Q: What sequence folds into this?
C-alpha cells in the first residue's frame, strides 16, 4: 500500500522524477503474489491501480541501490537490518518515525482494517515528504 500511495502523492505533486519507489518483502510467504485484494480494493476506490505488481524479496544488494528503507513495523525493521547486513549508513526507518511516532503501522493482514492502515501510511508518508523538504 505504501509504495502505491507514495507513487500517487509524488506524481500529483509533479516530483515523481525525483524518486525511484519500490517495495520488497522481508519474508517469503507472499513472494510472487499480487497485491492483497483488500489493499487493491481500497486503492481502486481512490483511483490508484495496482495491476501487475508482484511481491519480491528484499536482497542484500539492495542496500547500495536505495537511499531509504522504510518498514511498517518493528518486525519489518528487524528483518530488514538482518537481510541487509545491518544498517551502517542509517538508511533503515520505521515509517511512522517520520510522523514523530514510535508506533507500528496497523497491519491489515491481522486486523482486516485497511482504512486504519491507509491512515497510518498517509500520516507516515506526509512526515517522510516533510523530512525530505518536499511538502
A:
Amino acid at each position: 500500500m505504501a509504495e502505491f500511495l507514495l507513487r500517487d502523492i509524488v506524481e500529483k505533486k509533479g516530483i515523481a522524477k525525483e524518486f525511484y519507489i519500490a517495495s520488497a518483502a522481508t519474508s517469503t510467504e507472499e513472494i510472487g503474489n499480487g497485491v492483497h485484494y483488500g489493499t487493491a480494493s481500497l486503492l481502486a476506490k481512490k483511483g490508484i491501480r495496482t495491476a501487475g505488481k508482484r511481491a519480491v524479496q528484499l536482497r542484500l544488494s539492495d542496500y547500495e541501490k536505495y537511499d531509504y528503507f522504510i518498514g511498517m513495523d518493528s518486525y519489518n525493521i528487524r528483518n530488514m537490518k538482518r537481510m541487509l547486513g545491518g544498517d551502517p549508513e542509517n538508511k533503515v526507518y520505521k515509517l511512522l518515525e517520520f510522523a514523530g511516532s514510535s508506533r507500528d503501522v496497523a497491519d491489515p493482514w491481522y486486523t482486516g482494517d485497511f482504512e486504519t492502515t491507509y491512515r497510518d501510511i498517509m500520516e507516515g508518508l506526509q512526515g517522510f515528504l516533510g523530512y525530505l523538504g518536499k511538502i
